[in-house]
Amino acid sequence: MLNDAPANVWDRELEELFLRTGSRFTRIEPRRRMRDYVRGLLAPVGRKNGWQLAEWAGHATPDGLQYLLSRSRWDADSVRDDLQQYVADQLGHDDGVLIVDDTGFIKKGTTSAGVQRQYSGTAGRTENCQIGVFAAYATSRGHALVDRDLYLPRSWTDDRDRCQAAHIPDDRTFATKNTLARDMIRRAHASPLRFRWVTADAAYGQDSRFRRFLEDDLKLHYVVAVPKSQQVHGPRIEDRIRREAPPKAWQRLSAGPGAKGERCYDWAGALLPVVEERDGDKPTRRRWMLARRSITDPEDIAYFLASAPLDATLADLARIAGCRWKIEECFQSAKNECGLDEYEVRRYTGWYRHITLAMLAHAFLAAQERERGAPAMTRPISWTSHRPRSAVSWQLNPRTTPHASTTR
């Protein structure tokens, strides 16, 4: 929050951030209101709605801030582009990972753009809510939200009168969450953000078109969760792991630091056969199947597919998979500290404007709290099959089997 750091430091660095975005507001009134709004989102305000933000900023009414979100002339996508440049400057690193996920915003009524009864992972049940698809950027220096799109169910896109009432553009047609995620990844890939890896949960990872898009269109590497029913060269991934993984394939590795120290699990990974029609005679990447097993509950197993550089190790993939939790941390801190979910707008444009400014405030917090000098992950040796084109190659634990090999 704003009062947790010396005021002069915050003011100076906030002013630098505002200078980046100032040109997006051609008149002084919206520029000042934007600054008041972002400062309010960072301030110790009980609930960051229009009235309380206006009172904190010294406004007699919330009309000015509401006008900023609804009728003022400025482009939220241009501010998002400035946000990405800011995050690249403050947190950018060659070890960057892009993470995609969605989160729910519980709402009443039927007029807020995109609202309907639908499953919300935030609530863990079907609720009347809006769903936003987000991208977060994570490096060893910190992590922040960098893009967003509002999911519009068919109940909205098939009703143009309803869309018109919510000021949804005529050219906005139905798009799945995975399509929105692909669009955000494409934008991030063209932005100043540096990353080679993408990670996502099973809702995205189980989509073969999503994985092919990353590999073939953008030449990116990925580690994505998949359901246990995911087929891998025929059998389900759960069946293959349980039936084929030798005991020595399981390695205890960290998925990254958490609130209580390193998040350690038992991991097993196998290189999958090369697909010659896609990879050619000299592949530059290899595909994997992975399993992450709880130390305390061996029946609790999560499954992943990966496409990685030739020299990647199981420890590398465990670290990338563990980055997915960083977007959950972003959601939590952006909602708790920056009012990401406390908006009162109903129209499409207002949603994008509030969410973008809340992300800007959150990126500022991330820059102030960025991690410095994080220790590098250890890279245990791995064993590679002498027949990589036709066999699954289990990556054995070097602590127990320095030179052993198992091929099935």
SSE order and pairing:
Blueprint: H1 7-21, H2 28-42, H3 50-57, H4 63-70, H5 76-91, E1 97-106, E2 116-120, E3 125-139, E4 142-150, H6 154-157, H7 160-165, H8 177-189, E5 197-200, H9 202-205, H10 208-217, E6 221-226, H11 237-244, E7 251-258, E8 261-271, H12 276-279, E9 285-293, E10 301-309, H13 314-322, H14 325-338, H15 348-368, E11 393-394
Parallel strand pairs: 1-5, 5-6
Antiparallel strand pairs: 1-3, 2-3, 3-4, 6-10, 7-8, 8-9, 8-11, 9-10
Helix pairs in contact: 2-3, 2-15, 5-15, 14-15
What does this structure look like?
The protein is globular, with a radius of gyration of 23 Å. 38% of the residues lie in helices and 22% in strands. It is α+β, with helices and mostly antiparallel strands. It contains 15 helices and 11 strands. The model is unreliable at 371-390 and 401-408 (pLDDT under 50). Helix 2 (28-42) packs across helix 15 (348-368).
Number of strands: 11
Order of SSEs: HHHHHEEEEHHHEHHEHEEHEEHHHE
Shape: globular
> Overall mean pLDDT score?
89
**How many DSSP H or I helices?**
15
| Estimated structural class | alpha+beta
Sketch the major β-sheet. 11 strands, mixed
Q: Helix share of residues?
A: 25-40%
Amino-to-carboxy terminus distance: 55 Å
Cα-based radius of gyration, to the nearest Å: 23 Å
Question: Hey, roughly how much beta strand do the residues contain?
Answer: 15-25%
